[in-house]
Write a structure and sequence with these properties.
- By secondary structure, the chain is of the alpha/beta class.
- It is built from 15 helices and 27 strands.
- It has two domains: 181 residues, 3-Layer(aba) Sandwich (Glutaconate Coenzyme A-transferase), CATH 3.40.1080.10; 240 residues, Glutaconate Coenzyme A-transferase.
- The strands form seven sheets. The protein has an eight-stranded parallel sheet. Strands 16-14-12-11-17-22-26-27 form an eight-stranded mixed sheet, sandwiched between helices.
- The longest helix is centred in the middle third of the chain and has 13 residues.
- It is globular.
């Protein structure tokens, strides 16, 4: 059979320049998620700048150089539309790249149900195996939905992509694609893990106190999740499970320390489940052909109904600011876009509904601006224009270096009191005065 698949492979093999000719003025083009984003196709498409206009490109965390965006700073010819702003996307947001609001678990549904069909979808994959399959490698998040909703599927082969074994929708057969590019094999995006600060470690310590054997863990990105991973690795915790959207180096550290077995999981027992991976080369090497890890589409990993079925779930994510009502902003500074909703709300809601589940949203109590001014990140109201990532009805545990505030079942004055108690001491009196003006402070409240 391999010879049959190889013959089909060769019949579909084209150069990046030939594949880029599929795109016509007015088309929608989608690049797959994260490290599966196009490199060679996008580079070739940028060379057609003078032949095209109004080409719309969709992507989610485009991990590689955005050649088309660089070629057209005005966005008249190539306009990028991102499901989540990170990596190279940040160079273009507010210029020729725009954000598409979403809850991550709904991305495949929106793609199949509400989105204008793509004309071309490009996916960076592993080389074809002997059975005729290309593996999506470090991300199976949304790829199949995009491929189902397109005129042409183009595969861009990268020999450096890890082969990530899956639970569902982690590969595509040569008979299911239209064209194949043998790419230039760019290095995968590597995320360096900055050492956690003293504040990060303090916040992480409060979370560790709430964890116990058999917890199923979801970690976001950043210093606090890294600190939690390090502390877990050095703790007495055991039999932890993994069910997450993003697989990061903290999981690798916990695995090497023998803390992760998945033995207590209700679903996918003994498997570390994830939707995409970003981190060190060691992380990608660890995932390569690892039967202990399972790559799933994001409508499974992030579905709050699925998460809720996993007992003792612990979700740990970060945010930018929170107001005294318990509304969380994790994606903008005022109107300045930073990232996106991603899967945070998915896990906030799913973790709380889990039997024994806990959702933690973490932030240092203050932030220092470029001019040296220190400001509270717990605010009376969110900054004007700030996006509400988690509504007050969804938030559970809020954590700073001063402790944990549980929002569930609290009235407005109780929420204000709990949040002021974990604010930086220098800002507590000011926050009390603002709470009084907002009629969410009772005279009998204890002074924070």
């Amino acid at each position: 059979m391999y010879q049959k698949w190889l013959a089909e492979y060769k019949s579909k093999l084209v150069s990046a320049e030939e594949a880029a000719k599929l795109v016509e003025p007015g088309d929608w083009v989608e690049y797959a998620f994260g490290v599966n984003c196009s490199y060679d196709f996008d580079k070739a498409l940028a060379q057609r700048k003078d032949e095209l206009y109004d080409v719309k490109i969709k992507c989610d965390i485009g991990a590689y150089q955005h050649f088309t965006a660089e070629a057209d700073p005005s966005g008249e010819i190539f306009t990028w539309n991102s499901w989540h702003v990170a990596a190279h996307d940040k160079n273009f947001i507010g210029k020729n790249l725009y954000y598409i609001p979403m809850k991550f678990h709904e991305n495949p549904m929106m793609t199949r149900k509400d989105i204008i069909p793509n004309n071309v979808t490009v996916v960076m994959c592993t080389p074809m195996d002997r059975n005729g399959y290309f593996n999506f490698g470090a991300s199976a998040a949304t790829t199949w939905a995009a491929m189902e909703n397109t005129d042409y599927v183009v595969i861009e082969v990268n020999e450096k992509m890890p082969r990530c074994l899956g639970g569902n929708q982690e590969c595509v057969h040569v008979t299911q694609v239209d064209y194949i590019i043998e790419g230039s094999n760019p290095d995968l995006l590597v995320l360096g893990a900055a050492p956690p600060s003293e504040t990060d470690q303090k916040i992480a310590s409060y979370i560790i106190e709430k964890m116990y054997d058999g917890n199923c863990v979801q970690l976001g990105i950043g210093g606090i999740p890294n600190a939690v991973g390090t502390m877990v690795a050095n703790s007495d915790l055991k039999d932890l499970g993994v069910h997450t959207e993003m697989y990061v180096d903290a999981y690798l550290e916990m695995t090497k320390a023998g803390k992760i077995t998945g033995a207590k999981k209700n679903l996918d027992k003994y498997k570390q489940v994830y939707s995409f991976a970003m981190g060190s080369k060691e992380l990608y090497d660890f995932l390569d052909n690892n039967p202990g890890c399972a790559s799933y589409s994001v409508d499974y990993t992030n579905n709050p109904w699925v998460v809720a079925q996993l007992d003792n779930f612990v979700s740990i994510n970060a945010c930018i600011e929170i107001d005294l009502f318990g509304q969380v902003c994790a994606e903008s500074v005022g109107t300045r876009h930073i990232s996106g909703t991603g899967g945070q709300l998915d896990f906030v809601e799913g973790a709380y509904k889990s039997k024994g589940g806990q959702s933690f949203i973490c932030l240092p109590s203050t932030i220092t601006s470029k001019d040296g001014q220190v400001n509270s990140r717990i605010r009376p109201i969110l900054s004007p224009g700030a996006i509400v990532t988690d509504p007050r009805t969804a938030t559970h545990m809020i954590v700073t270096e001063y402790g944990i505030a549980n929002m569930k079942g609290k009235s407005t004055w109780q929420r204000a009191e709990a949040l002021i108690e974990i604010a930086h001491p220098e800002f507590r009196d000011e926050l009390i005065k603002e709470a009084e003006k907002m009629n969410i402070w009772r005279k009998i409240n204890k002074k924070a």
